[in-house]
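lol ok so funny story. i was supposed to be doing the assay writeup but got distracted and ended up predicting the structure for this chain instead. priorities right. anyway since i did it might as well share w the group, maybe its usefull for someone
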Amino acid sequence: MSNKNKLEELALNLFKIDAVKFGDFMTKSGIKTPVYFDLRVIVSYPYVMELISDLLYDFVLKDKKYEHLCGVPYTALPIATLLSVKAKISMLMRRKEAKSYGTKKVIEGHYKQGDSCLIIEDVVTSGSSVLETVNDLRKEGLKAEEAIIILDREQGGKQNLSTNNVQMKSLFTMTELINILVKNSKITEQMGKDVKEYLSNVQAPKSAPEMERVLLSFEKRAVLAKNVVAKQLFNIMATKKTNLCLSVDLTSSTKILDLLEKVGEHVCLVKTHIDIIEDYTSDFIVRLKQLAQTFNFLILEDRKYADIGNTVSLQYTKGLYKVVEWADSVTCHSLPGEGILKALNSSTNVISGGVFLLAEMSCEGNLITPDYTEATVKMAAKYPELITGFVCQKKDSFKDPGLIQLTPGVQLESSKDELGQVYNTPEKVILENGADIIVVGRGIVAAKNPESQAAIYKDTLWRCYTKRVSGKME
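and the output, tada:
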């Protein structure tokens, strides 16, 4: 039997077993529809299951190789299982929720980063279910760029998937299915006409590209940045080929300036604690800004503001240090609530300043919870022109590729100091945890040769970044 005849037979069988229904229904995407495709019933019909798996195999697997298959949970899982056995290709299984015990995996099965995986789905309206599976696979380092579907409802799902770099093929479209049913007198011509007209008039919402920020280059992310400091930092990193931030935790202004003379060419950002400097004068700020211009780095004052809005505004603009006049960005806590961002937003020229919000900390025993992190990210979303990024430890803390993940607690080898500061390796924080800019303090400041140590950190961190964006993280 030819594939054309098999498709017609499949369409008629789906109608016969009520896998295709006509009436008044609601899709997962929230779209009302006069026709509904319910593939769950096919598990009771081995012949239909076999027919579908044969067609899918001939259509996409016969002449093309993939390392893995993955069915969109849960309806497509039995089809994916049959295809895996028929094609002798490894199958992966995606959980809708991670286990709370054991490995806590979302993707079950054996695989390597960089492996290709074909997505199997029954029906597509908006493409949202396929994208959920694609994104979880991509988070594991798998290449998920193709999907094979039984039925395309022709309501925008194929275009939405294409926008997110997923090419979709289908056994048939809804138009083709309706034509078969009309031709075989299963539905009236008027019913077929009404369904086609409905499908052409009612489209699923368009999907914005789901850009995995850790896979995008700094150049591309600079274009997406809404905060001017974030844009500058992305461009500086790309130009200087460094994502190293030096924390100058010294109490002598002379020692800080001498250090920056030696290592300035290796860093994109210098983090200060201005209130620990014992010989502070305004001349120090003048010289610091000159070095920033000479070596093309920005200045972050790590003040960690955490008071009520009015007090923070005064701390930022007044007093001995007048931080607003020289720091490109500052750090602050979200603990006081939105008032702190309102204060900083009104105190700084948002065209030239920025804020890193503390979403997570690297010290052992800190009290920040996942709910606190999530609330911090939501609060930041209200001030896109003010927020440069987040001080955090995990890549899933936020998604916006226009923001920067600033991660402290990094040394060339894992360790922990006597005060509970936990240090991770560059490979862990960049490749696994998604860090963009890495903060190094004592690893350079206390080194016998800070200049050579800064160069080592710079090269190591940049190598990890280029490996990450290449997608080759084995």
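The chain has 17 helices and 18 strands. The CA atoms of residues 193 and 376 lie 51 Å apart.
back to the writeup now i swear
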